[in-house]
Amino acid sequence: MTLKLQSVTACYRNRSVFTGLTLPEIPAGALVAVVGPNAVGKSTLLKSIAGLLPIAGTMTFAGENLAAMTAHHRIRRVGYLPQPLPQAIPLVAYETVFSACRSARGDWSREETELAIEEIFDTLGIRQLALRRLSEMSGGQRQMVGLAQVLVRQTPLMLLDEPTSALDLHWQLNVLNAVRDATSRTGSIALVASHDLNLALRYCDQVLVLSPGGQAVLGTPAQVLTPELLARTYGIEARIEQCSRGHPIVLADRPLSASVN
Ligand SMILES: Nc1ncnc2c1ncn2[C@@H]1O[C@H](COP(=O)(O)OP(=O)(O)OP(=O)(O)O)[C@@H](O)[C@H]1O
Question: Is the ipTM of this complex over 0.95?
Answer without folding.
Answer: yes
